Amino acid sequence: MDKIDRLKIFCLVAEKQSFAQAAVQLGLPRSNVTYAIQALEKEYEVLLFYRTTRKVALTHEGSLFYDEAMRLVAQLKELNRFKTQVRSQEGKISIGMPKRLATQVLIPNLKSFYQRYPKVKVLINGSDDFSNLIEQQLDCVVRVGQVQDEYLLIKPICQTEIWTLAAPQYLTEFGIPKDFDELQQHFAVDYHVAKHYRELSELVFKNHRVKMPYRLLIENTEAYIQAGLNGLGIIQIPAFDAKNYVQQGRLQRLFEHVPRSELPVNILLTDRQYRPEYFQDFIDWLNDLLKSELAVHC
What residues contact residue 139 under an 8 Å CB cut-off, 6+ apart? Predict the structure, then answer.
């Protein structure tokens, strides 16, 4: 019998004002109830009950002890409720990921996860900045790019290609560049998450980095893509984000013959020993989803 059990017995004796009635309700021998109370009195060096042949009553110290014991028992019930929620697959998952991955991949497919776990809440932190799993108290993070978090578990998904693109109206105005030298007569859309000014933009390929002029500096992905779609310059974005625009004819691929740079896609997790089943299933589901959506370039 642990301390919590003894505290529960104590509370019941206090409420019934009877060792015998408490024993009957709990289905225990009266000697077990007596031992539980004696053990508490010995541990805390306090007399909890006045005992007579006819009556059991709390001492003054026993009344104070009862208030604290009831508070502990109530807190334990809350903890047990949490355990019940986990067993019933009820809880929440907080995930950080690039905004475009959230809007283009995760959100359109979430219904299939909710069909399996309708009581699980998913909290999405969609940001162009790298989500910090520890500082932001996230359960997991999807990161496109290199990972340097040495204290996190890394679950590799695949490599995503970076495509170079421009809108048809831009190419009508400036022409289609045939080689890197011609890019000096073109404009890129420059993109930096942090506010930073530089004289030239840069296109990145697998084996080359090409500096070129720009007229527009953008600090978030959505605006960057919109600038490209509206013919304001050449852009480079992951293939998963570009393929629909290319299929619709809204963007045209450039330098397809040049080896493209690639970025790793990983799921980051903390090294937690105990994970609810719904969370582990979410990670497996997300892994399959990302591989499926990125299949063209994995």
Answer: 93, 94, 95, 269, 270, 279
Distance, in Å, from the CA atom of 132 to the CA atom of 28, rounded to the nearest integer, reads 52
Q: Domains in the chain, ordered, with CATH?
A: 3-87 (1.10.10.10), 91-148+270-297 (3.40.190.10), 160-262 (3.40.190.10)
Whether this prediction's pTM lies above 0.85 is answered by no
Measured CA to CA, the distance from residue 67 to residue 281 in angstroms comes to 42
Query: Do residues 87 and 132 lie in contact, with contact meaning Cβ atoms separated by under 8 Å?
Result: no
Strands 91-97 and 140-144 turn out to be: parallel
Distance between the two ends of the chain, CA-based, in angstroms? 56
**How buried is residue 164: exposed, middle or buried, by Cβ count under 10 Å (0-12/13-18/19+)?**
buried
The DSSP output letter for 95 is E
Measure the CA–CA gap between 253 and 269, rounded to whole angstroms. Answer: 35
DSSP three-state, residue 254: strand
H or E element at residue 178: none
Helices and strands of the chain, counted as H and E runs: 10, 13
Taking each helix axis from N to C end, the angle separating 60-87 and 3-16, rounded to the nearest 10 degrees, works out to 120
- CA–CA separation, 77 and 4 (whole Å): 11
Strand partners, 164: 236, 254
Q: Which residue is it, tokens 């024993």?
A: 23
pLDDT digits (tens, 9 = 90+) for 168-206: 999 999 999 999 999 999 999 998 765 567 889 999 999
